[in-house]
Amino acid sequence: MNGVEGFMYPNEIGLQWSVLIVLYPFITGLVAGAFILASLERVFHVEAVKPTYRLALLTALSFLIVAPLPLQLHLGHPERSPEMYFTPHSTSAMAMFGYVYLWYLMAVLVFEIWLDYRKDIVLLARSSKGLLRLKYKVMSLGSDNINPRALHIDEKVGWVVTLIGIPSAFLLHGYVGFIFGSIKANPWWSSPLMPVVFIFSAMVSGIAGVMLIYMATTKLRGQKIEMRCVDTIAMYLFYIFIIDFSLEMLDLIHRIYEADESFRSLDFLVHTQLYIPHIVIQIMLGTITPLVLLFITQVIKLPEQLRKRIYVVSGCLALMGIFAMRWNVVIGGQLFSKSFLGYTTYKMALVTREGSLVALALAILPLFILWALIKVLPPWMAEPASHQPAGD
User: Which of 68, 90, 314, 337 has a beta carbon 3.0–4.6 Å from 8's, enabling a disulfide?
Assistant: First the structure.
């Protein structure tokens, strides 16, 4: 039961969106950010991050598979969700997500992964026997031509798909910010900067997540972490983090300067119920601390082991800060009344359909899917060919 402070109308008591709706934009952000990291190597020719290229694609796919599940559980009747495809609502941003999701999953991400792995799949089909051979035969979709000309075509098509995938990734996650930013009745959400902030925070979380996964999987395999790779990833993480933080501060300064009738209510909320998640966790621990740590690695030549530890701490704190940002947007935007006179609280249950255990399970599930994908298609089975633009 939610506690209430001040005056609230009966239809305002109780939060409509729970922790699952917090988890949903967090997971989709990881998808978009991981894909952007992969595009650095294929499209922008940042050769230093090549060791994470395939891992980033598999990570994006793992989290994308899980992305709709929080919404499905929140709906209560997941069997109704296919109706959005058969009875489309062009004016509904939430309904149109189904098409954006399907486009990004099948036409972009899965297709790019298949093109990049096709040669390895064909070779595995030729060298395997029994059911394993059949599995790779099915995965090859009957395409067993791996001569240089065929592989060159794969490379050109893959480059085009990645190029299309970059705005698609922005669309996938930016529309989440668009949904919140277009709700004019809620001053906490109604901001034209909301979609842009969501996009850059997604890049921060995705890059930090892939960096941590790369370091963890390399360590578990007993291999040496390529410091040139993680140093470059950390550099991009630092610069994008600065942009993300600057946009959030710009939004905050605009709100303070504008100081409309909702400002006192929101200011009170930030200094009371949201003080820990917003000021302490999101800004102090999840933004300023990793920024300072990453800044130190950019200006001072630290020992390799110390840089590794800093990258791990910075990545974990960045993920925590981005999750806190999602929490503060989704939950924080529901804690005050539309009259700005009353406040409520959110108490997360432990064992319910939308409780903390279910949220934790959904947060961990993509890692198990990633483990299964790596077993089938190891990202380090063979170094991918140097990616060149379609016109080369």
Answer: 337
